[in-house]
Amino acid sequence: MKLNLIAVAIAGLAANSAFALDINTTAPQVTIRVAGASAQDGDFKTITKSFCDTVKNDNTEYTTTVKNAQGNATGFGEFCTFASSGLPASIAGKKVLVIKNGDGSLFGVQPVLLNTSSVNGQNVEFLNVAAGVCTAAGACNTGYPFSTISPDAGVADVEPAMFDPTLPTSTATLTTTALQGFGIAVSAPLYAALQAAKMTVDGTTTGVPSLNRSQVTALFSGSGGYFQASDWSVLVGASGAGKKIVLSRREDTSGTEKAFEAYFLDAPCSTGPQLGAQTMVHATDSISGSYEVSEFASTGNLVASLNTTDWALGFATLQKKPGGTDTWKFIALNGVSPLDGTHPTGPSSADYQRYNTINGTYDWSFETVAIVDNAGPQATKDFMAQLNTKLQDPSKSNIVGLAMIPGSGPNGTYESDTNNPKRVALTSRVGNSCQAPIAF
Q1: Residue 110 lies in a domain
Q2: pLDDT, tens digit, for every residue of 64-122?
Q3: Do 205 and 267 have their domain in common?
Q4: Quick one: 33 and 149 in the same domain?
Q5: Angstrom distance (rounded) from CA 82 to CA 267
Q6: Looking at 332, 348, 366, which one is the last position of a domain?
Q7: CA 168, CA 135: separation in Å to the nearest integer?
Q8: What is the pLDDT of residue 273?
Q9: Number of folded domains that form the chain
């Protein structure tokens, strides 16, 4: 009897695999393209798949190992028959192909608001999920598997005004979706040097290293006290003598970059140096042998560089967690770690990586936003509305480094119990990154 049940189960798995949609033989009835930040890609995939018909079970995920013009291979596609009930008519029961671009927040902002397929001279490239390009198993590696297309929707780490306050937003619908934390990340040698200098949360040589906000500003500001300094001795003393300062930042199209500039440089919140805004250092400010600035197209590439670079400091979303072979680590800001060392579930838990952001003790956080062209296809508008609803539901969304905004979801109430957090934050900037967090 058991053998028969096993045989039936295997046959069922084989049937599901056999009936998966193949772009080479089945054309989508609806195609939806969303561009921008990659921070929520994990839940974006999970939620998109939850719209698939569970009986047909015919989803195929399309990915690539080929890097696009921005140096990323983060694009993906999900292709399945959506459920015939519980969804709007524009997508219900349809064979829907959803393609996501992950080249950075500005790619999900400017092209949607200006109805263009380029960003500062760079094309908006989507994975070309098409016959002859992708295999039935979902690998899209034939030739250059990307196509340049203007998106009808985007996602970003910060609101459009942080990139350009003159961008028109009246023709789009903007929805805040989550609270995202950010952290200062350092290489292992710098981590150890900060500990040795007792620049830690508890003043010992074994505590979590900590820098204050003004020290980080001094490193990255074009007018900061450590700008183009000769070595790390300006920060850690004698042990840093002769050690080249290496600073890792994101490109200007990145929402993570804009979150850094807003928090540490007050830009663009205070316009002009007279009001306090400071300029960010660029690779062109580097001085051979002493002061090096690198700009990265993705957070993944940035933190990877910290593994192989001596005495380096950068920044990333708290969505990133050091893997088993990584040596880089997050440090504290103003004596507060972005990681909750007392959380009962420990470092393996997503809550450990975000709870100090949730309870407001760690305040380097900003609100992600979804942007939808009001003149775009109805199917895209309906899909994004469904997606945003689930992203704002703490019972459905569980992304490392991100939390729900108070009042934004079905259970939008702060929960202080660290044993069973509801993933809803205590504070919000109410959609304005230039505003201090407000407790709810």
Answers
A1: yes
A2: 999 998 888 779 999 999 999 999 999 999 999 999 999 999 999 999 999 999 998 89
A3: yes
A4: yes
A5: 43
A6: 366
A7: 40
A8: 54
A9: 2
Cα separation of 440 and 437, whole Å?
10
Q: 209 and 111, same structural domain?
A: no
Question: What is the distance between the alpha carbons of residues 328 and 189, in angstroms, rounded to a whole number?
Answer: 9
Q: Which domain holds residue 283?
A: 189-366
For 415, half-sphere exposure in the C-beta direction (CA atoms, 13 angstrom radius) is 14
